[in-house]
Design brief:
It is a single chain. The protein is an alpha+beta fold. Helices cover 18% and strands 29% of the residues. The chain contains 5 helices and 6 strands; from the N terminus they run βαββαββαβαα. It has helices at residues 20-23, 71-76, 115-121, 152-159, 175-183; strands at 6-9, 28-42, 48-64, 91-98, 104-112, 124-125. Strands 4-5-1-3-2-6 form a 6-stranded mixed beta sheet, with no helix packed on it. The protein is globular and about 40 Å long. It starts with 5 loop residues before the first strand and ends in a 7-residue tail after the last helix.
Length: 190
């Protein structure tokens, strides 16, 4: 098995974004503009999600220093390899990474979210495949509404009030109360 010492980032961990310096920069040997295939969504919680798909998603390939431990990024991304996939916010998966001219750059880790979770969080498709906090500065009230469920599992989860992030500002509890608090600017602190 070949060891992968690179990670593809597409959101708040990209160079120039909010968490790059704290979680990535100390471990990066080289950052290269790059892309992977998938679908990109903006989540109302203020960050993006990559899902399986065939569109191009732009970000950065971070070539890491030798012996870099990914556990700090895993923890930031809500991923624990010891937990079942259903308990992780993202899965860390290997993906082929390409230059912006579509030349293969090799394999890298990428944090991928399941489609059902993006739907439950109310993700907004970004057809251009590029996310930046400067482009997504505010949260639209329409984005906070639960999506139309695509299957019975999603329908039951939304009906039972489980269409919320248990780790973010959505919090546990009543979806409508969380929505009302957000819309009137009383966002709970964690």
């Amino acid at each position: 098995m070949v060891e992968i010492n690179a990670v593809f980032v597409y959101g708040t961990l990209k160079p120039g974004e909010a968490y790059y310096q704290k979680y990535c920069q100390p471990y990066v040997q080289q950052a290269i503009p790059a892309q992977v295939q998938g679908c990109l969504y903006h989540l109302p919680q203020g960050y993006p999600a990559l899902t399986q798909g065939e569109n191009w998603v732009q970000g950065s390939l971070l070539k890491l220093l030798p012996d870099t431990d990914l556990s700090i990024i895993d923890q930031f991304e809500g991923y624990d390899p010891a937990q079942p996939a259903s308990q992780n916010e993202y899965q860390r998966l290997t993906r082929p990474v390409y230059s912006l001219a579509e030349a293969c750059l090799g394999q890298a880790w990428a944090y991928v979210m399941a489609d059902f979770r993006v739907a439950l969080y109310g993700g907004i498709l970004i057809p251009e495949g590029y996310w930046s906090r400067t482009l997504w500065t505010s949260i639209s009230p329409l984005a906070l509404m639960p999506p139309c469920p695509r299957n019975r599992v999603e329908t039951d989860a939304i009906r039972l009030g489980q269409g919320c992030c248990s780790q973010g500002w959505w919090g546990l509890g009543d979806f409508r109360a969380d929505l009302d608090r957000h819309l009137i600017g009383l966002r709970p602190q964690h």
